[in-house]
Amino acid sequence: MVDHARSSHVDVNGVSLRILEWEPTTSKERPAIVLVHGLASNALLWQGAATALAARGHRVVAIDQRGHGQSTKPESGYDMATVTSDLAALLEELAARGFDRPVVAGQSWGGNVVVELAHRHPHLTRGVVAVDGGFLELQQHFPEWDDCATALAPPNLLGTPAKRMREYMRSAHADWPELGIEGQMGNFEVLSDGTIRPWLSFDRHLQVLRGLWEHRPSELFAAITIPVMFVPADHDHGVFAATKRNSVQRAIEALSRGRVEWFHGADHDLHAQHPERFADVVSDAIAEGFFS
Predict the structure, then answer these.
(1) pTM score, two decimals?
(2) Tens digits of residue pLDDT in 10-65
(3) Architecture of 6-286 per CATH?
(4) For a designed S-S bond to 36, which of 77, 101, 106, 158 qualifies (C-beta 3.0 to 4.6 A apart)?
(5) Facing residues of 229 across strands?
(6) How far are the Cα atoms of 50, 70, 170 from residue 190, in angstroms, in the given order?
(7) How far out from the chain centre does Cα 33 lie?
């Protein structure tokens, strides 16, 4: 169940992107925010953070990127240039609806997407937030694409009972709020027999992964002219755990206007795990004028 959000579709670049929209729940209206999910995720995982941001006066939109969730699932177009073009075209459509250069936040792969957006289309946003992403360079860890594809291929979850998956999610994320669990379950279509099927197919997953493997954000930072805030999780597991702090520091040094807010001990999906804190970090940065 979507919490106080309006669902619709916006047609851009030959695909129909599903968006969820939250209106401010306070009279003190603040700049709008657009939220972009990570690989094999979906807009619903932003529910908690979006609700918290709306309570702080922000109009919020979360999107399903192509191939994900309720959006169109074409056979191609998962490279970084195309998905960034999707996002840029969506922002242009939203501008006609009153979104005045929103802050755009993206998580993981979505963090790299918003960094690419900041480089290619700085006029569309007042700044971007990269949530445990934006610095990801898979070729540093997997110089050969075949090794990357083997190591990071998704598990085969087709046929798993939805009830069992929900129980696993609650066990694996015991400190997550219920909206976070619901958001994770939004990654799957529940079939008539009660089993799940990922919205993002295996082939499309690998295409997105290939686009991320090819992406080199470190080559972009020096040319980005708008503010970039990193919100990384400081945990001790995952491919990037050993190199993350140095990668973020180098990014901050290269950017004309950079900032970092670490979430110590948080999960990769820190926005779902700590939605209120995440909302505070982003809303406070806006209020302090970082994105001016």
Answers:
(1) 0.96
(2) 999 999 999 999 999 988 879 999 999 999 999 999 999 999 999 999 999 999 99
(3) 3-Layer(aba) Sandwich (3.40)
(4) 106
(5) 129, 259
(6) 24, 13, 17
(7) 12
Domain boundaries, the chain: 6-286
Q: At what angle do helices 47-55 and 275-287 cross, to 10 degrees?
A: 40
Question: What's the token pair of residue 229?
Answer: 């805030």
Rounded Cα distance between 75 and 139, Å, is 24
Say which DSSP state 195 is in: B
Helices and strands (DSSP H and E) totals, the chain? 10, 12
Angle between helices 80-95 and 202-214 (to 10 degrees): 90
Nearest CA to 92 out of 61, 63, 124, 121 is that of: 124
Which 3 state secondary structure label does DSSP give 255?
A: coil
- What single string gives the DSSP state of each residue in 3-37? SS-EEEEEEETTEEEEEEEE--SSSS-EEEEEEE-
